[in-house]
Design goal:
The complex is a heterodimer of chains A (451) and B (308). By secondary structure, chain A is α/β, with parallel strands linked by helices. Helices cover 44% and strands 14% of the residues of chain A. Chain A folds into two domains: 183 residues, Periplasmic binding protein-like II (D-Maltodextrin-Binding Protein, domain 2, 3-Layer(aba) Sandwich), CATH 3.40.190.10; 211 residues, Periplasmic binding protein-like II (D-Maltodextrin-Binding Protein, domain 2, 3-Layer(aba) Sandwich), CATH 3.40.190. In chain B, 37% of the residues are buried. Classes of the chains: A alpha/beta (451), B mainly alpha (308).
Chain lengths: 451, 308
């Protein structure tokens, strides 16, 4: 009996391992296909079809209904296959198994290379997607493309700002948001000594937050050429500047480093342990439930700048909708995501419907008064959409992600995250992260440019 | 159904035929089990073994590498880190939990406890709560700023210990699993205690033994095999330590790293790093390792029992 049970131990894990066989197909190369003709599109859109759409964005029912009304032959089956990683795990499994994958899936920007490397998404350029480029915020558009290839249509975006409790800052005698990061450090000391609150919390697991700061400083830590070459550069002067700044401000004890998204963290936001948050435009939505008691006391501002007088942003979060390889209905699938994210009434609805509130990627929506002039109660009536729209325009392009971001994010916690918690030197940890990412890339067969 | 055991065989041949019928019936009974055993256990094991002999790369696809993944496992400091932690967990948590289980079982069995039924149920109840839920609940208790335990400390003006720190995490996990499994082990021992013939106690009492003496010299030796069972279960359970790290990681993401326990490491390798083949090798090695340790424990205790 003991032996069987012992084997059973192994089996539990093995079964888990077996269920999920990771991506194993070879490197993705793009076949240059001929453009799809209007006749093909017309024919496809009049053929009865059911599309499966995996998304974790809430509240897209009205947009889907409008699409189905416009194209009565097409039905869209919306499935929430889990938030982020949960969805990608299922998608990986379905792609490996060769069945059960959706026609369309929502992918976060950081995940796009992980699916192009396994040749799992359809290049949308032959379907006419390249012509949409000029209608989108440049940074948002860039994440779904490599060269002339288009891997997805941007659905939402997370330009980063600094949101803060104006009542707590006022108690400390601060009436304007810090304009530079140097000022931010000074303000953090003032707020801590006068009110006991932390001006911000740097959650040790939020690598996108730190990457957003590096992006703002002008660093480009990752890139992928769409084939076999990746670049990892976490030892650049920009990374050093951000790392050293974080080391210093964390060691000062004027900002906290509590793990995020826990019950403790939500309570800390609600009762003012944190006076602010450096976060993407979606951040406030996450707080409106648990920190409802603080509604009206918040103000949104652009992130402080690394160099006084500049106006540069960064981004954290956002996703594209991609057509998944193996679909029998690529034309209908493309037309659907194009409608969802490009049709002006659909794109506006996504941005303004309180059930979805996705931050828009399309520039016409950003400028639309229905969106821009919305007075947001959580921010005491401030027109925060305008604030974040202005930031969106300042997000630098050229930033990219690795085709193995899952590993990178997890290893970040072991290296940089551990340094944040332990309040040790973050640049040293960045170098460690760099080494791990280079080693992993080589092990996976990539040519790694380590700068 | 016929009742073949009631017919008396008249000849040797008849006996054999009956034996065959009996065997056929027995196989019939175990077939449903064997089907599940093979499809749910044997096949996945073999598949994992197969997987563990390959390497798959994002660029380059799958290649046969023989035992290279195993060679990597046995030189992987991260694997040993997890294994070492389990070792520590094993030598501390298992004795504490089993001592408590034995103690509670003896107390309830003594019949001198008022409301013994309620106590028995209360101690057993945590076992009925799914591990996921109990870890979440304890997670709320442990929260460093607004957790219940910190709040209690703050209420009386003391500074609360950080139960989720690097230093205290393993202890916090031991506490959860002790709380959860002490009742389960108690019930096993208690059931064994109930089956001891009461004449033994009367005899011991006649010889002038007190209750403590009876417990130590009569009851404990009598339930040795039940305790042994608990030890083996606990050893195996320790190697399986997974729920606690996988749930508490959200509360202490930088304390519980990807290799915190071997099973958690295998999970992360498979699901995060996309190194399924290596994960299979780790899982397989761990299975073998667990079998060896369980066997050693069994053997040691048996020897001791024979000497006694």
């Amino acid at each position: 009996m003991k032996r069987n049970s012992a084997i059973a131990v192994g089996v539990g894990v093995i079964a888990a391992a077996v269920l999920l066989s990771g991506c194993s197909s070879g490197g993705g190369t793009t076949a240059s296909a001929a453009m799809v003709s209007q006749a093909d599109i017309t024919k496809a859109m009049n053929t009865p079809t059911t599309l499966t759409f995996w998304t974790f964005a809430p509240g897209l029912t009205p947009e889907i209904a409008a699409f189905e009304k416009k194209y009565p032959k097409i039905k869209v089956d919306e499935v929430n296959a889990g938030q982020s990683a949960a969805e990608y795990t299922k998608l990986d499994a379905a792609l490996t198994a060769g069945k059960g994958a959706p026609d369309v899936a929502q992918l976060e920007y950081s995940e796009v290379p992980s699916f192009t490397v396994t040749n799992s998404v359809v290049n949308l350029a032959p379907y006419g997607a390249a012509s949409l480029k000029d209608q989108y915020t440049p940074a948002a558009w860039s994440y779904g493309t490599s060269g002339a290839d288009v891997w997805g249509i941007p659905q939402d975006f997370g330009p980063m700002g600094f949101i803060y409790r104006n009542d707590i800052l006022a108690k400390a005698g601060i009436t304007t948001a810090p304009a530079t990061w140097a000022q931010f450090a000074t303000d953090a000391a003032t707020v801590k000594s006068k009110t006991g609150s932390y001006l911000a919390n740097f959650n040790p697991t939020d690598s996108p937050q730190v990457l957003g700061l590096i992006q703002q400083a002008g660093g480009i830590p990752f890139s992928y050429n769409g084939k076999k070459t990746v670049t990892v550069d976490l030892e650049s002067p920009q990374v050093k500047e951000v790392s050293d700044y974080l080391t210093k401000i964390i060691q000062s004890g004027n900002v906290s480093v509590d793990p995020g998204w826990t019950d403790d963290w939500f309570q800390s936001v609600a009762n003012g342990r944190y006076a602010g948050w450096v976060v993407g435009a979606w951040g406030p939505d996450d707080l409106s439930g648990t920190a409802a008691n603080t509604s009206g006391k918040w103000t949104a501002a652009p992130m402080p700048q690394w160099t006084a007088g500049q106006n540069v942003g960064g981004d954290w979060g956002g996703s594209v909708d991609s057509v998944i390889k193996g679909t029998s209905h690529p034309i209908q699938a493309y037309e659907f995501i194009k409608y969802l994210n490009n049709d002006s009434s659909s794109a506006t609805e996504m941005a303004t419907n309180p059930k979805s509130l996705l931050f828009p990627t399309k520039t016409s929506v950003l400028a639309d008064p229905a969106f821009a002039s919305q007075k947001v109660a959580f921010f005491g009536g401030q027109e925060t959409n305008t604030t974040f729209s202005d930031i969106a325009k300042t997000v630098p392009t050229g930033f990219g992600y690795l085709p193995y971001m899952d590993y990178a994010t997890s290893d970040y916690i072991n290296t940089v995250g551990a340094a944040i918690t332990a309040k040790t030197d973050i640049y040293t940890a960045m170098k460690k992260w760099q080494n791990d990412l280079v080693a992993y890339g080589k092990k996976q067969g990539f040519t790694v440019n380590a700068k | 159904m016929t009742a073949p055991t009631l017919t008396v065989p008249r000849s040797r041949a008849g006996f054999k035929a009956q034996q065959r019928r009996l065997n056929a019936t027995a196989y019939g009974f175990i077939t449903p089990f064997m089907v599940f055993f093979i499809t749910m256990l044997v096949v996945p094991i073999l598949y994992a073994l197969y997987l563990s002999l390959f390497q798959s790369q994002l660029i380059g696809g799958q290649t046969f590498v023989g035992f290279a993944n195993y060679a990597q496992t046995f030189t992987d400091p991260k694997f040993y880190e997890g294994l070492g932690r389990i070792g520590l967990y094993l030598v501390i948590q298992v004795p504490i939990m089993l001592a408590l289980a034995l103690f509670f079982a003896l107390v309830i069995d003594s019949g001198r406890l008022k409301g013994a039924k309620f106590v028995r149920l209360a101690i057993f109840a945590p076992y009925a709560i799914p591990g996921v839920i109990s870890t979440l609940v304890w997670g709320y208790f442990y929260g460093s700023n607004f957790g219940l335990i910190s709040q209690l400390f703050h209420a009386v003006g003391l500074s609360a210990p950080d139960l989720l720190s690097q230093k205290n995490m393993l202890g916090s996990m031991m506490n959860i699993s002790t709380w959860e499994f002490v009742g389960y082990n108690m019930i096993i021992i208690y059931a064994a205690l109930r089956s001891i013939p009461t004449e033994l106690f009367d005899a011991a009492e006649m010889d002038g033994a007190g209750q403590w003496r009876i417990a130590w010299s009569v009851k404990v030796p009598a339930v040795r095999s039940a305790i042994m069972l608990c030890v083996i279960f606990s050893v195996i359970g320790s190697f399986q330590l997974f729920t606690e790290p996988s749930l508490l990681v959200t509360l202490a993401p930088t304390v519980i790293d990807t290799q915190y326990t071997p099973t958690y490491y295998a999970y992360n390798l498979a699901f995060t790093n996309h190194e399924t083949n290596y994960a299979a090798a780790i899982a397989f090695s761990l299975g073998i390792f667990t079998a060896i340790v369980s066997y050693i424990v069994q053997l040691t205790v048996q020897r001791r029992a024979e000497r006694a």
